[in-house]
Recover the amino acids of this structure.
């Protein structure tokens, strides 16, 4: 079977899947193939002498154990149905209850062997549930029979026996293949270990060697446990991974190796609360119904899981029967050993260089669900010493904590994290409880020195700390501690890391000085910021606007050279529309020209599509279409072999794409490609990249294969013109991080009477034009692309 079809079949069951283990009739004494432990358990549960010719056992696996228990009771009959209409696998065979509910699917390789017998009409099949409701494993006996109940001839019986034998062998092969996939993911990371072994100490190396020496099936189970990312796991639930075979034996081997802990060996894990957390809502409700009174008019059914668990926890403190019942219900539990977990996480971090990816990347790629670009990996080590690695990983962990704290509005924790990073940079924040700083104490020195050379060390501790401290500026400003914010900004401006943020820092510097009533100094800072070559896009325009506003006589007598640029205003089109909501802070919705509710962007598209407005065709993209076009036109430049850009095979972009070093490292390639686009070579580039990468749906930053078609992209590019297209590509290549935002909302085009395009920024009644949006409109006008602002007002 091809990998593509394997991946398709893996998804054919939706949220439910089945794994089969076959045994030949009346040959129970024969040693079972590897991976058939679960089938043997089912066979032993079947009454003696009930196995007839044409029978085999099924171990049904589902990701929804509650549904499996509800649908599959012992002795229940199931229908065996061919699913020829299945788009992902036309050979699929599924199990269905008498009322038409799907239970699961026969695995791919077994279905390939069995589908022909059912399609030929020579055989019919039915299934009986042998054991159900125990953990997540449901055992089913499937029997083949001749149509109409006629007895098969010896030849027919032999043919069926051969089919079942091939299905059994195919299933055994699939079990082993799945284990090899799982084990191979970990082996790939371990294979990378030789280049990063200097990052681990002796104890960590021992753990890694223990993992490396594991047999195939225990290693496959370890990968499953690592990907589950849960503290405690019930062993009976691990039996769902039937490809492992004897799961309990694999668990025992991992425990012996010190990679797993048993719950009984952990005081914390043995607490009643920890054990209750392992039970499902249904299990908790059943337990509460048996041991607790009350529960309201409806009993404990329908009550929230946390409420039932809390009630059981309260009663369980003085009732040993509840604790015993809970322990019996959950059975054996294991958890990844804390030290082993830490080492494996460090190993993955050293491979992927962040926490956003893990071993599942290998499996998704193997099944064809995720296809990554082809590029040359860098062979040079990222971290020179163990200390560099440990410090960088710790800094990344703090950055993740900060994101979580801000999302949950935990300002106390966020401030503590910012203070720690600021201290690492040499800036000590005082008590956060202070809400304001008198202007007389503000330090307003303008002697900030520019770093001689920005640091290209994207994967360093200081780079991360600068990013964390940057978030502290807004926290200080919200607390109206403008003087402290200024001091922090001065520290950051003196650092070589993250030069792309310098424009924002200079702007905040000038703004905070105005908050302190120091307009003259604010003007000086704005002028100083404009001398910084790293200040670009909307940040430069904002500083220029401030200089023009504050630099009037008698402060400044000379008109700056950029005054005309600052005064520039885009063309505006205004029309009125009736809103359906006018609440501040909510998305504006209007009655469209078709009398249906639409957003401001949708209303603008309808407006420009009218015949009296030019009959434009358009999309609301906000830069999405330009991200796609940029990726297609610059594919080989983006994924060119630049040292340090690619460190593992699961990147959708080079590490430096959103830094200030992408263009510098590829200047000649970028300039040559922009010149080619301007000469009209964009069409062939689009077609070539699309033809090469679309069949794989290759992942790439900014690229969505299903959002725009090639013909649509060609039409937009043709109507925009080579000059405009080249300008967009050039700006995105020179400063991708800043220019990818602020693009006009609408892309409009038409081919009659001649190809033409227009870019429109849409603004509702309470919206204003941002500096970055203004900068884009200025760039488009400079290269001859028609653009305007569409303002929608309320009557």
């Amino acid at each position: 079977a091809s990998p593509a079809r394997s991946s398709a079949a893996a998804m054919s069951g939706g949220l439910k899947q089945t794994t089969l283990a076959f045994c030949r009739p009346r040959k129970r004494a024969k040693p079972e193939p590897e991976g058939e432990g679960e089938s043997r358990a089912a066979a032993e549960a079947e009454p003696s002498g009930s196995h007839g010719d044409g029978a085999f056992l099924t171990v049904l696996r589902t990701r929804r154990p509650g549904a499996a228990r509800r649908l599959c009771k012992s002795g229940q009959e199931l229908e065996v149905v061919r699913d020829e209409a299945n788009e992902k696998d036309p050979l699929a065979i599924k199990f269905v209850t008498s009322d038409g509910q799907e239970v699961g699917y026969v695995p791919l390789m077994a279905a390939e062997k069995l589908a022909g017998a059912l399609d030929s009409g020579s055989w019919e099949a039915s299934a009986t549930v042998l054991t159900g409701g125990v953990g997540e494993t449901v055992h089913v006996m499937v029997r083949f029979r001749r149509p109409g109940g006629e007895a098969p001839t010896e030849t027919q019986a032999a043919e069926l026996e051969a089919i079942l034998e091939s299905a059994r062998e195919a299933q055994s092969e699939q079990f082993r293949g799945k284990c090899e996939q799982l084990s191979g993911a970990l082996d790939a990371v371990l294979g990378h270990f030789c280049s990063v072994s200097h990052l681990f100490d002796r104890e960590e190396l021992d753990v890694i060697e223990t993992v490396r020496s594991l047999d195939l099936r225990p290693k496959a189970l370890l990968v499953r446990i690592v990907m589950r990312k849960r503290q405690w796991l019930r062993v009976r639930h691990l039996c769902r991974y039937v490809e492992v075979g004897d799961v309990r034996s694999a668990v025992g081997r991992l425990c012996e190796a010190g990679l797993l802990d048993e719950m009984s060996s952990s005081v914390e894990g043995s607490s009643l609360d920890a054990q209750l957390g392992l039970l499902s809502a249904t299990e908790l409700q059943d337990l509460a119904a048996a041991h607790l009174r009350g529960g309201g008019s409806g009993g404990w059914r329908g009550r929230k899981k946390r409420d039932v668990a809390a009630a059981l926890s309260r009663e369980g403190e003085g009732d040993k029967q509840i604790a015993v019942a809970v322990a019996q219900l959950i059975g054996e539990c294991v958890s990844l050993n804390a030290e082993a977990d830490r080492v494996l996480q460090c190993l993955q971090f050293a491979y992927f260089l962040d926490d956003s990816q893990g071993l599942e990347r290998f499996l998704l790629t193997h099944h064809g669900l995720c296809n990554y670009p082809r590029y040359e990996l860098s062979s040079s080590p990222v971290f020179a010493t163990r200390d560099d690695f440990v410090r960088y990983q710790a800094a990344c962990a703090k950055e993740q904590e900060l994101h979580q704290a801000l999302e949950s509005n935990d300002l106390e924790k966020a401030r503590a994290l910012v203070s720690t990073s600021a201290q690492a940079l040499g800036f000590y924040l005082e008590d956060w409880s202070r809400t304001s700083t008198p202007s007389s104490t503000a330090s307003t020195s303008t002697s900030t020195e520019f770093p001689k050379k920005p640091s290209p060390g994207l994967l360093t501790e200081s780079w991360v700390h600068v990013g964390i401290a940057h978030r502290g500026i807004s926290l200080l400003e919200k607390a109206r501690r403008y003087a402290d914010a200024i001091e922090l900004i001065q520290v950051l401006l003196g650092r070589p890391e993250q030069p792309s943020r310098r424009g924002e820092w200079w702007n905040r510097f000038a703004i905070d000085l105005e908050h302190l009533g120091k307009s003259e100094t604010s003007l000086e800072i704005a002028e100083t910021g404009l001398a910084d070559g790293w200040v670009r896009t909307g940040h430069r325009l904002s500083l220029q606007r401030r200089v023009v506003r504050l630099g009037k006589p008698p402060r400044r007598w000379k008109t700056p050279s950029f005054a005309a640029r600052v005064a520039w205003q885009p063309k505006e089109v205004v029309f009125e529309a009736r809103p359906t909501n006018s609440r501040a802070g909510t998305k504006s919705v209007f009655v469209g020209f078709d009398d249906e509710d639409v957003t401001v962007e949708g209303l603008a598209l309808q407006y420009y599509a009218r015949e009296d407005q030019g009959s434009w065709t358009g999309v609301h993209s906000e830069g999405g279409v330009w991200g796609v076009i940029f990726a297609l036109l610059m594919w080989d430049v983006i994924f060119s072999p630049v040292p340090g850009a690619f460190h593992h095979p699961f990147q959708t972009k080079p590490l430096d794409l959103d830094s200030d070093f992408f263009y510098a490292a590829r200047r000649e390639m970028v300039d040559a490609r922009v010149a080619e686009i301007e000469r009209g070579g964009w069409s062939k580039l689009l077609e070539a990249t699309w033809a090469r990468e679309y069949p794989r749906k290759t992942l790439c930053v900014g690229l969505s294969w299903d959002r725009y078609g090639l013909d649509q992209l060609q039409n937009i590019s043709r109507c925009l013109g080579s000059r405009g297209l080249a300008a967009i590509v050039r700006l995105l290549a020179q400063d991708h991080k800043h220019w990818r935002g602020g693009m006009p909302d609408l892309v409009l085009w038409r081919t009659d009477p001649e190809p033409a395009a227009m870019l429109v920024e849409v603004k509702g009644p309470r919206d204003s034009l941002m500096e970055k949006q203004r900068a884009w409109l200025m760039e488009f006008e400079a290269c001859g692309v028609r653009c305007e602002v569409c303002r929608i007002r309320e009557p």
Notes: Residues 1-52, 437-447 have pLDDT under 50 and may be disordered.
